[in-house]
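Batch manifest line 472
LIGAND: 6-O-phosphono-beta-D-glucopyranose
JOB: complex structure
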Amino acid sequence: MSFPKNFLWGGATAANQCEGAWNVDGKGPSISDHNRAGSRTSGTRRTFDLEIDDQYYYPSHTAIDSYHRYKEDIALFAEMGFKVYRLSIAWTRIFPNGDETTPNEAGLQYYDDLFDELHKYGIEPLVTISHFELPFHLGKEYDGFLDKRTIGFYERYATTLFERYKDKVKYWLTFNEINFGTLDHGRRINGLFNREYTESEQYQALHNVFLASAKAVIAGHKINPDFQIGCMLAYITMYPKTCRPADVLKTQQMNDRLNYFCGDVQVKGAYPYYMKRYFEQNDIQVEITEEDKALLKAGTVDYYTFSYYMSTCIADNLEDRDDKSGGNLFGGVSNEYLETSDWGWQIDPIGLRYTLNQIYSRYEVPLMVVENGLGAFDKVEEDGSIKDDYRIDYFKQHIIEMGNAIDDGVDLIGYTPWGCIDLISAGTGEMSKRYGFIYVDRDDEGNGTLDRSRKDSFYWYKDVIASNGEKL
Ligand code: BG6
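JOB STATUS: finished
ARTIFACT:
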């Protein structure tokens, strides 16, 4: 098994899940700042409040306070030997409402300092421009990306980042998990929360997100031709529940629409043929002009990245089944050959090799796995240690399969496990759903010292990186 010499080992986070300091130094509220905590284990969903109400706990407001502790965190990443660190920039630190014409200097300076700190240790930043952090104001006043003006606001924001950090950041991602844009929680990408929206409106907003991404790619390449600007999708690997042709066909249709569609637009630069049929059958109207088509063609991405946590099964009668499985915003039916995490996500390392081959054979551009990991309960022992062998085992199996995919011929250039430091869950707002190599002392209600400590997986991952994936 052979990882290339310059393979980018690292970890990933997002501003709204780790920074905290939600209203500090001029930052405005993002959509995520309006999300209360829920609990997936007890079945309560997160509540989205139009008005922030002080009697409730909003996890993103303090999160793990990395806004103030980033130096300590980066030193720990460096100790593990990270080559790359994926983070997102909070849009509302740069443009607090989203529609200003002048950026907030304090916000820009914060990320300048953070990038300098990374470079001090030779860690390459990988920046997600929009990771569930759309300014709340853009949703409230403009209906987010349903309004074409938001494309311009995003372009201004992205261009501001490209110009400011053109010598500090090379790797960019335009939108996190863009393919969730029309599903539950899509509001954090497209800003649709004022009312119920038709499917046509949801797809129109997603179309405008595609245009914004394409504009950013074009602008970024003009500012620095060396920029690598990628797309990012949530890949939910789907298998037919049985070999019944109807199950296989349904799997293909769902896979096309949920996994392939956005990548086809962003990598190939055009709407795929199968969406035309879906739009017709569901009476969905999306306005796509000739100018839009040219823009999508000109603004294709340089590389493809995705999150991979699990796989699921699809059956023809999916909606009526009572053997549904849990999932990362979307779950199908259960697979009796797989174990599940504490949150019901089906663990499938071989599925990662299969997925890497599926994606690479379709696009033949460099790939990066920018999220992968096990959300689990951790126990702190009396001596302060955290024996997370279940997490080590999860990573070990997935890394073996990434190595196999590389041997298959897939051009995989990097790996940034999710939540390399414990942070708040996007799905539930819980802290107890921990992903990190680094433990953070904080609970689901916001109590704790916020102190950091190394889990057993920390030392293990350090060895993995030092041996370039040989010592597992
Ligand atoms: C992805 C997101 O959906 O999965 C992350 O990009 C998120 O923001 C991660 O945290 C894991 O999901 P969760 O719900 O366990 O936090």
